[in-house]
## 1
Amino acid sequence: MFFFLGFALSSWAPLIPFAKERTGLDDAGLGLLLLAFGLGSLTSMPIAGAVTARLGCRFAIVLSALATALVFPFLSFVASPFLLGAALFLFGFVIGLAEVGVNVQGIIVAKAAPKPLLSGFHGLFSVGGIAGAGGVSLLIQLGLDPVGAAAIVVALILLQVALAAPHLLPYGSDHPGEAGGRVRLFHLPRGFVLFIGGLCFIAFLVEGALLDWSALFLIDARGLEKGLAGLGYAAFALAMTVGRLTGDRVVASLGGRRILVFGGIVVMAGFALAVLVESPWAALAGFMAIGLGAANIVPVFYTAIGRQQAMHPGHAIAAVTALGYAGILIGPAFIGFIAHATSLSIAFALVGAAMIVVPLTARIVTRD
């Protein structure tokens, strides 16, 4: 189901140019429209925490997967900007529900296992992202229209949930008896949960920076031709995927504290390499270093959330994930503001410098 989440989310990306053409929006209008997805996710996450706590992980995950299959086709043919915005809000809403459900399930399973598992789970999310974006792009390249590509995506989503659902744990915490009790809808994060949420904000800010600005950095600051500019995020995503698929063994060997210390340092070194060495190939190497360094930081944060007792896991995961998403949403605007006032290189340098908080707080995050 981590694979499903990455697959469904990334399958939308190759359809964006077609949506822009259908709606007739310019870049600014499209940018505002795309915010609907993030707003939908942020709206659903507090509700998702309550649903998971009250009705269990399996209900939340299966419901979100079926709703995703229902909503996704509308992204392939709706021509009205208003209706597309509504579809994107609903898509973000059900993806937010899935984010919380699969992470709570993952933490329950990981806590019961004799070895680390969360990095591998998040690695399958990354693999799903590659499969979704690459698969839909290939289908369109082979001549299939967006509606046909969306139909195949929906069929694969339904197949994934049919295979996984019978094996999902039905409850919403590592204390099965808690499910079904009286649970408030909204819980404000506090204490350790708020602290981890702030760290996730910074970690997701890094990912948002490379997702939205790496191509422009390679073109404007390093002179790379436009046709190759997508290699920046591809290098980052590939390195992160490899890092997460091998991360469980690394975490078991080094421990979470060293992962945060070394990972944070490698991310900062990657930004320094990209910013200080005026070569597109150095920038690509820096982006790969950032991907490797950041790969297992968020899984360690989620492991720490699984240990805390201040909040129900569903509500805690919802709060931390929402704060992380806020980093992805706010990050591009923050970077754009800094880049406009100074330069994109300085904006990237500031994002890299913000990662110093991760190794400095590693001891607090990983304490028993």
## 2
Amino acid sequence: MDVIIENILPLTSQILGFELVQKDGSDLPAFSAGSHIDVFLQNGITRQYSLANCSSETHRYLIAVLNDENSRGGSRYIHESLNVGDTLKISEPRNLFPIQASTQKAKLFAGGIGITPIYAMAHELSAQNIPFELHYFARSKSALAFATQLHEQFHGQIFFHVDDEPESKADIQNILGIPQSSHHLYVCGPNGFMDFIIQSAENNAWNPEQIHKEHFAAVAQDTSNNGEFSLEIKSTGQRITVVQDQTVVQALQENGYCIPVSCEQGICGTCLTHVIEGEPDHRDMFLTEEEQAMNNQFTPCCSRSKSKILVLDL
């Protein structure tokens, strides 16, 4: 659907907020905290951005975009090319990072731009009178997006931890405590940050079922040992070779098979494809370990094959 950029908010020197509204001022499709939208940019790139505002707001979506120094073309284009009044094509919201219905108390952890879905969660938990703590980590106070709003709206529940203020250093063990079964932890941010929080939680007896995460970027993969393998299209029997420096999606596209892709990193699940035979080499961060072990689906944007042939349900 098409939306209008109603306002652009300078949240930090490197983060811009974008308020998106319907052209005719009508309500936008409903969403829940943790949802994201796909943004289809005019340079041909599609990117996902979490909705940061309260889910009770029907008149706008609020996203925040970091001008990433390692941008693959999405964030840089947004920062340099978009203006108030421009039209953006977006998807309806979808939620891969929801607040669990069994949550009676929540620990929220945000690192950097990972505050966006966590901010929406704070709104929703507050509206439902579910107690929570929000711990927001950044390199400096100037890098904290929504800092004023968070302090005003969730005073006593929000805790800032910044690298250049030693007195704000987090005592993770004390913050996590020993959880009850109705306690849930939600974390979003850089991969190293999330690994630290999750490992600390598991060391404090948090069960994996109580820990929920959302990745913004995939872990770098070693592709030096990529081998050549073949795909077989079940419906036609056609064989397609995937060479070392090629993704499955690229090989399929070159042979006329259009696989929808979005993040191209194995994070969003847009390209998820059913596997009938063979053993995928799973390199995604979307499927759970249990789902990967079933070997009946994989993400062709980044995953490969351990077997010489993968038979795909295409």
